[in-house]
Structures are given as C-alpha cells and as structure tokens.
Amino acid sequence: MASFQRTRPAPVQTSPDSGGMSLRAKWAIGGAIGGGSVAGLLATGSSALAVYFARRVITPARQRAADQEMLALIRDGQRQQAIFAASDDTTVDGVYGFFFDGGKGHARIGRIVSYSPAERTVLRDVEAVYSGDLSTARRGWWSGAVHPDPAAVGLPYEEVMIDVDRGQAPAWLVRAGGTARTWAVMVHGRGATRQEALRAVGPALELGLTSLLVSYRNDGLAPSADDGRYGLGSTEWRDVEAAIEYALANGAEEIVLFGWSMGGAICLQAADLSRCRHLIRAMVLDAPVTDWVNVLAHHAQLNRIPSLVGRYGQLMLGHPLGRRLTGLSAPVDLKAMDWVSRAVELRTPTLVLHSVDDEYVPYGPSALLAERNPEMVTFEPFHQARHTKEWNVDPERWESLVKAWLRQQLAPRRNPGALAPASS
Q1: Helix-then-strand count for the chain, H and E
Q2: Per-residue pLDDT, 128
Q3: Which positions fall inside the AB hydrolase-1 domain (predicted)?
Q4: What is the pLDDT of residues 57-97, one digit of tens each?
Q5: In whole angstroms, what is the distance from residue 349 CA to residue 189 CA?
Q6: Could you count the other beta carbons within 10 Å of the beta carbon of residue 293?
C-alpha cells in the first residue's frame, strides 16, 4: 500500500460540478455531519486539513513519488552494484524492485554489500535490469515488486480480460499443469499493481493452483470507478468477484484468495459479500488492512495530524453528506470493514502474514483478529520487513509457511459419514 505522504494540504476549492456551491456552504453542510463538537472544529483551519486527509486516503495517486535517491552505479565486468542514499527501505536486507524514470525503468536490487552510517550510503548488488538505463537513474522508488511480469520469473502466461463494471480489467493467467480445479485469485494493494502478486505464483504452482493476477478499479489498468475514488475494499470486491466468476467459467471449482494490504481488505469483503463466497476455500493475506479506523489513525499520527482532525476525516468518509467534500459517490462504511470487531463472523480459513515492523499498516489488528477467531485465522509474524515486504526479507520462510498451511486447507475433506478406522 502506498504511503500517505507528508505534504502541505492544497487549498480546497469549489469543484466544477458543485453547482456553484461556495466553500462556506460546504463547511455548513459538513457541520451538520458532526454536531456541536465538530462545529467548533470547522471554525478553524483544521477543517481544511481534515478534508485534505480524507481525500488523500481515497484518491489514487497519478504518479508514485520518486523519494529514493540513487547515487552511483558501479560496474565490474558483468557485475553491477548501486550506491543508494541510506533510508528506512534501503537499509533492510533482502531483494527488492527499484523503479526509476517515472516507472519506465525497473531493476532488481539484491543484498546489502556495505552500509556506511556516517556517509548515509548503502552499496547493494544489482541482480537484473529489466527496463531502462540504470546508469542514468538519480531518483526512483523502492518496491516489493521484484519482477515486471511472469515471463521474468520464467513462467508462461496469458493476458486475459475480465468483464467488470464500466469495461474490462486485464489479468495475468498462469496455468498449473494438468487440470487445476483450484485457482488462486491474487489481489494487489493500494497504489500497487498486479506485479506485487508475482511473489506468490511460485508457491501456488507447486501446490497445483492456477493463478489469476487481477487488476481492479482505479489501479491504472482496470477501468476507473465513476467517482475515481478508492472504496477501500467496499467497492473493489466486485471486481474480485468478477475474477472469481471468470475462474469458475474456465474450469475452476474452488478459489483461494491472496491479498496484500488493501487487497487483503478487498478479499475479506469478497469472502463476506460475494455470491461465490461458498466456493472460497481459503485466504492468504499479507499485511492486510483488517481495521481501517486503526490504519487511518496511524497515518494521521505519522503525518502529525491532530487526532480530532483525523477522526473528523474518517467521519467524512462514512457519512452521506461527507461525499460532497470527498468526491465519493457513496459513503465508505468503515465499521463494516472492521474485521477485528467482526472477527467471529469470518468463516473462511485465513492465513495472515504480517511484519511487526510494518510502518504503514500496524500488525496489531492482524494479531488480534487471530486471537479472537483462532479457529479460522492463523497469524504468522515477521520481523524487520517493511509494509508488504515479508517475502522480500525472507522468501524461504514466507513460501514454506504458505505452502504448508495451504496443503492442510486443500487436503481432501473427509466425508462426515465415513466410519473412523478401528483402533488397534
């Protein structure tokens, strides 16, 4: 999930489709949302900050911020190494993607060779350059997406189109050998793409699962929603349902959902609301958002936004009148997506992998979900990994946990009427 950057709020202006409604009138409408205590807040500039915060949460970014500096590229024969400015990302060992030139360039960055705290630089191996000229790169962004497409992993695949609201959404289809009756539908997170899910395709294939790596509304590949806003899972699950229906129409008999970050929230909604939910055999969720109120409060704190302002921003997202300020076509029901409070309602076996060092989606709600529903939820903590980068830090452990857990879930179900074997 992309971060909510620490930037100054832009002036809030009357939108072209507001019918000439003044900003003062909009604040008056907003005052009706929260009552007396919020009315006092609206009298200050904090109200503009609340609007800005709410809109940042649900508005897709047009371009990722190139917030990682690359200082030099060193060539030694066929070997390449890159010097990066030390950051919270570059100083964690593992394998990562580095995107540069506005996303046109993509390199796979490997282990840390050396780290100089005094100079604040890190020297790392360059394992591959898939596109672009890394020697000219100066800035870019760090990513958990290591490979650009299935072919880069050595996997044959098909580009397929899934019918969704307002058009068709592209997906990568990686077929398992033989006739796979179980398909894995993989759902990336907020601000990411289907590249994020490539890390799970190998384990899925080992288990005999055909993988469908999907796109969904507002991710830059699928058609945008009519309001151009994220629903935080409350709307996107319909695109996942469409992907499930595509799988069922093409030979699948049951589904395993994989979800990262907001993709986890989307999967949880699909398992709760989809008409195909009875065919979802299991879910594997990496750093999922299980409680948006917790995540939004965390980001308000990260951005030094007063807690009252952050809570008012949440109120705007969920109240029908708030959509006049946020641009949402319908309010987002954060309570319905609070799976910590709804823990006992989750009836799909779920594996949650989440780093205790996750800086964007706190791991606490994931652990609490498992604690409140141990029958259905298995929680596996990771360490050191930043958001959705558990695989990048320890791919062997990530894959072994997923495969072992899914083997249990996908084992043939015992016939309840069968006689138990006689004891010797």
Answers
A1: 12, 14
A2: 97
A3: 185-379
A4: 999 988 899 999 999 999 988 899 999 999 999 999 999 99
A5: 21
A6: 18
Cβ–Cβ under 8 Å, residues 288 and 352: yes
Residues paired with 212 in a beta bridge: 173, 185
Is the overall model pTM greater than 0.85, yes or no? Answer: yes
Q: Which residue has the tokens 């452990």?
A: 397
Would you call 264 helix, strand, or coil by DSSP? helix
Question: Which residue matches tokens 């200082």?
Answer: 71
Distance of CA 222 to the CA centre of its chain: 16
The label of the residue with tokens 């070997």 reads 79
User: Which CATH class for the 68-143 domain?
Assistant: mainly beta
DSSP state of 345: G
Residue whose structure tokens are 């899934």: 162
Running DSSP on this structure, what letter comes out for residue 65? -
- Provide the 10 A C-beta neighbour count for residue 13: 8
pLDDT tens-place string over residues 186-210: 999 999 999 999 999 999 999 999 9
Q: For 297, which DSSP code?
A: H
- Give the integer Cα–Cα distance in Å for 383 and 141: 22
The pair of three-digit structure tokens given for residue 303, joined into one six-digit string: 């951005």
Quick one: 150-291+338-410 is in which CATH superfamily?
A: Alpha/Beta hydrolase fold, catalytic domain (3.40.50.1820)
CATH 2.40.30 residue spans of the chain: 68-143
Residue 100, token pair as written in the block? 């540069």
Name 30's Cβ contacts closer than 8 Å, sequence gap at least 6.
Answer: 38, 42, 47, 51, 316, 321, 322, 325
Rounded to 5 degrees, φ, ψ at 286 are -110, 120
Start and end residues for every CATH 3.40.50.1820 domain found in the chain: 150-291+338-410
Q: In 173-251, which ranges are continuous DSSP H helix?
A: 201-206, 237-249
Question: Edge to edge, what strands does the sheet with 167-174 contain?
Answer: 158-164, 167-174, 210-213, 182-187, 254-260, 280-286, 350-355, 377-382
Return the beta strands (E) in 44-166 as ranges. 68-76, 79-85, 96-100, 105-116, 121-131, 139-143, 158-164
Q: Which tens digits make up the pLDDT trace of 9-24? A: 443 333 333 334 444 4
Cβ atoms within 10 Å of 169's Cβ, excluding its own: 25
> In 3D, which of 328, 324, 196, 335 has the Cα closest to residue 264?
196
